[in-house]
Structures
1.
Amino acid sequence: MTSNAATPFPVGLTTLHWGEADAHPRALLLHGLTSAGGTWWQVASALAAGGWSVTAPDLRGHGGSPRTLRYRLADYAADVLALDPPARSTVTASTSTSAAGRPWDLVVGHSLGGAVATVAAQAHQDWTRALLLLDPVLSMPDDQHDAVIADLLGDLDHLDADDLLRANPRWHTEDAVQKVTAARVVSPFVVERTVRDNVGWNLEPVAARIRSHVRVLGADPQLGASFTAAEGDRLSAASPDSFSFAVVEGAGHSIHRDDPDRVVAEARALIAP
């Protein structure tokens, strides 16, 4: 059974939270394919310790969130757009009220999460004040789909915490444990549909239409970057007032694991007064 309906429908996502619910700034962290909200533990903990309210969902098909028949980027985006930031309480001498949820102060997206954040932010320009995208997958040529699926499924079959730490010496032990735990509950169906349901995966024009500030941190090209310098140059030219890009030398695709301090510093800088 398959679904060809064009209209995206949201599912209720399992979410994790760090910090006081009514704290400010408020950040939403979106993980990559075969990952989960808990993999943000270092960045989320550091931001919460600095007074932030941080929310990290499991995307559809991941962690404890619902499984569906369809995994288009528009569907992923519908899910996260349905998540409002925790309301900030406003107390006066006579009354106590809750402020409206939107917008998020910052949305951080890694890999697939960066693509989802891009689609959501362009569809609803008031969704977030700023975006921080970590080596986002903004393009995936259709003729590469088979190879991408094979690579991802191969990783799922052989994922081991000790092997991950040997391959990624900058990772904390907990990063490897969280990654393995998250990957074990992601099915081959979710991986394949996330790729095949998105024919014509090209989000560069979408990113250029976002009015919020977009900051991209790219992985070191020598360590397998998904976001290229050419993409960064084109987006900088198309949106010089709202887009910026930097390469994190020595960091692989999982920048939040290789250099969480850099991610936290960039997050704070984006929403500084």
2.
Amino acid sequence: MSVLDNFESWKDFLGDRLHQAQGQGMSQQAISELAYDIGGYLSNQVDAKNEQEAVLRDLWNAADQQEQHAIANIMVKLVQNEGTGR
């Protein structure tokens, strides 16, 4: 089963990666830019596996670049308290 198949698993996966990046000293700005890059990649290259991912993809595609950065930052905030180690 892929982490993309279940939204809770996806949030745990993202939370784990966020905590790992923070633990390695990655700046909040770098994390934000990486989240933006990942959002663009997922929107263009990966089919949504559940309703939540489909909504996020649709929001991303409707947004301009500034709004996409805001979505990426919100996703980072969403997963701050997620992850398998929490």
